[in-house]
Amino acid sequence: MIKLAEKIIDDKDISSLVDWLNSGDRYTKGEQTVAFEEEWSSWLGGKHSVFVNSGSSANLLVVLALLYSGRLRNQKVIVPAISWVTTVSPMIQFGMTPILCDADKDDLGLDVDHFEKLCEQHRPALAILVHVLGHSNKMKRILQICEKYDILLVEDTCEAYGSAIDNKKLGTFGLASTHSFFYGHAMSTIEGGMVTTDDNELYNIMISLRSHGWLRDNDSEYKEKTFMKYEMNDPFLENYYFVFPGLNIRNTDLSAYVGRNQLKKIDSYVTNRSKNYDRFANKLKNHVWIQQSDTSPVSSLAFGLIHKNRAKIAKALVENNIECRPLICGSIQEHPFWYTRYEKVDLPNATKVHKEGLYVPCHQNLGDKQVDFISEIILDNV
Known about the structure:
Elements: H1 11-23, H2 31-44, E1 48-52, H3 55-69, E2 76-80, H4 85-93, E3 97-101, H5 112-122, E4 126-130, H6 139-149, E5 152-156, E6 164-165, E7 168-169, E8 176-180, E9 193-197, H7 200-210, H8 220-229, H9 253-263, H10 266-284, E10 289-290, E11 302-306, H11 310-319, E12 325-326, H12 336-339, H13 348-356, E13 357-361, H14 368-379
Helix pairs in contact: 1-9, 2-9, 3-4, 3-7, 5-6, 10-14
């Protein structure tokens, strides 16, 4: 069986983890988490990171923090039609107004012409994009549009960290970025996610919201400023002083320890994924639609393609013990959680992905022979 994802936490990682577990007696958020956050920020190229229990929670946290920051002039948010349910569900959960943007015909990120049209029409305060399967959106144009219409930008980089454009890693272009360390992504902490930002205020709000809404984990300057704001002058209350109706979406030091070891190997993981993407692309580009962008390297979660014979291709892949899936989840507006709440709009590119898109394995453990075998099955059925 050629799987969409394979084990990357190896025996040495497990042995090291067991030794660490035997050396201590407290495994919840602590020193390992702080160290992992700092090392992740350094690797990605950001200032601050917040480790949480999933990439979905990372999206939830950054949206809630922006709401409490007071920096959103309204509650309109542009969201991508090709994405994941928990990229867009925070807007529904918090009573905001999500506005679907169609997919780019090449990279499947935001269609920049549709994006600008929506910005001009709705004047949203926030936009969230997804770097689909490791491919960058057209960031130069998107950033220009955001500046023109005064829109804050969040990058959902859950399936693309390690990818870069012009030697700048994805996840470092917007106000904040989110990342997933779920099994099958570029690296794994078993379950886990991260938010990264250069904005100190947003970072401190997220640190507080992550753990109940208290201030005990915040930096000293932010705590002092907040204590003064609310005229809190009893030091005994400091550890249990809640300024936000917060969440509890912390991860554990166990997961952080795993993540720190994974970070030592992530560059090689990204190199292998990008190599596999290039091999697939060279074999298939003249026969099926394939996802393309200026991204280099491409930290590809999977290899995406579109063809009218999707059902035939998928059947042949499964019969040859090759896992495949719809291309992410197709168009967001074709799912009940969306269309039972909102009217459908014209999204031709996303609709085509929904009807004809699929993806196949492209993970770091895949070898050339496996890439060639998968490609042959696809080519035999187009």
